Amino acid sequence: MTLYDFAIAPFADFAFMRRAFAGAGILSLSACPVGVFLMLRRLSLTGDAMAHAILPGAAAAFLFYGLAILPMTFGGLAAGVLVALAAGAVSRLTIQREDASLAAFYLISLALGVLLVSAKGSSVDLMHVLFGTVLALNDEALLLIGAIASITAIALLALWRPLFAECLDPSFLRSVSNAGPLAHFVFLLLVVLNLVGGFQALGTLLAVGLMMLPAAAARFWFRDLEPLCLMAIAIGLLSSYLGLLASYHWSLASGPAIILTAGIFYAASLILAPRGILLSRLKPKRHLTA
Amino acid sequence: MPCFRLDDVTLGYDGHPAVHHLNGDVGRGSLTAVIGPNGSGKSTLLKGLVGALKPLGGRIERVGFAAHDIAYLPQASDIDRSFPATIEDLVSLGLWRKRGLFAGLTRDDNAQLSTALDAVGLSGFRDRPLDSLSGGQLQRALFARVLLQDARVILLDEPFAAIDSRTVADLIDLVRRWHGEARTVIAVLHDIELVRRHFPHTILLTREAIAWGRTEEALHPENLLKARRMHEAWDMQADWCRQVTA
User: Fold this and answer.
1) One digit per residue, pLDDT tens: chain A, 290 residues?
2) Beta carbons of B141 and B148 less than 8 angstroms apart
């Protein structure tokens, strides 16, 4: 087998592979920077919670419309926003912190979603909603992912400064401006949007993997925000490509293959990157003479 | 001419008052220290003045300025020092109200930033990452941010806690400069000597105002003794306040 046969032919010969890479790749462009901000705000697990929270919306749409992309997207979006708003409101109005209220609401949401899916659908349907179908992306799904990526890019660029300030010193931003809560909410909306986009391709449970793993891996390479985002995108793209290749050649489930590839990047970065375990321990600390 | 006017103000959390029935004025352009034992309501008072905490009772009047004209340096800032930001990023937040949401720094802003960093002794530290700073350097940076905020009212909550004496001396100079520029400065402090030397006015708190006025009178030994006694006699299980306001 030539290198061409191995690395390029699967994509050149099969439209479903091209579509899969387009979907996962475009998703990486927007989900990975969102993941970087989530990580820096110490909200890494919030992505996971939100991924569960969108389930009942998608499931309700699935019950009424079957496997149709737009209803499931808007259903998921509605459920995600509802949970984010409810969790935020509880933490603002009571003594309960947002992590606890978010946990409560996403668990309710998840249980509701599984109940809805299993009430009517078969377990195959449930697997589809949970784990996605990156190899069966149609034009509609690709367009949706493209639109979500565009919205995310514009919103991130527009909100860069308030998001940066909110991460760095939230109470200061609150004292000089009302932009903080707004930026926070729009940002959570972006998280939900990207998860909804991701669950077409990877399913609700794996979408968060493409968001967080490249971000967490990039943290071992760079310190500053811009290079972090670019590195996360690069890792996301590579994981999508290599994961799809692995799934093609070894008949692996494609979604998990992509996420596991990102996991390998994470493990490799953890060990080998400049800020990883090895180099930060072994390298003697240099210092100035005075 | 007052800057803040407090009328029977009670501040607290969850219906539990932390500081009771405060009455008094803070003069415009005055330099006031707030002093008292731990848990006597000093930080709570500042939060009330800033507007972050609504009074449980009474009224806080801001005379001739809005909440946004206050520069407030909280005691334990929730600055995330592991966040990848530089001193410039942190200090330039002080220009937020001037620059707004989206605009970048102009050349004029850059010059102001340099001047502010010079003033706190951090020239040359502009591009240093936050996680490499000592506590004193971080506090200097936060003072530089207050400088850029150019606020008429400045509230500082324990600005000199756990900071080396040279930094304290430098930052006190800044506080005196603000006083010279007729800004109203209120600072929560622990060091009585520091207060005596530099602050003309003092509020002595022990969950209520023991003294409020000129520093030499407020910090009279009798008042200090009273503050200590009242603090020791504090009863967590106290009944609801019986001092009825007419």
Assistant:
1) 788 888 888 888 888 889 889 999 999 999 999 999 999 888 888 888 888 888 888 888 878 887 777 888 888 899 999 998 888 888 778 888 888 888 999 999 989 988 887 777 666 666 666 666 767 778 888 898 899 999 999 999 888 888 888 888 888 887 777 777 788 888 889 999 999 888 777 776 678 899 999 999 999 999 888 899 999 999 999 999 999 999 999 998 888 899 999 999 999 999 999 888 888 777 666 666 65
2) no
Nearest chain B residue to A225 by CA distance is B84
Domains and CATH numbers, chain A: 3-282 (1.10.3470.10)
Query: What are the contacts of A268-273 at 24+ separation with CB within 8 A?
Result: A268/A217, A269/A217, A269/A218, A269/A220, A269/A221, A269/A235, A270/A217, A270/A220, A273/A217, A273/A220, A273/A221
pTM, two decimals, is: 0.82
A171 to B74: CB separation less than 8 angstroms, yes or no: yes
What interface predicted TM-score (ipTM) does this complex get?
Answer: 0.78
Site from A42, A171, A175 to mutate, B interface, most B CB atoms within 10 angstroms: A175
- Measured from the Cβ of residue A111, the count of other Cβ atoms closer than 10 Å reads 13
User: CA B40, CA B22: separation in Å to the nearest integer?
Assistant: 13
In angstroms, the separation between the Cα of residue B147 and the nearest Cα of chain A is 14
Planar angle of CA B26, B30, B36, nearest 5 degrees: 65
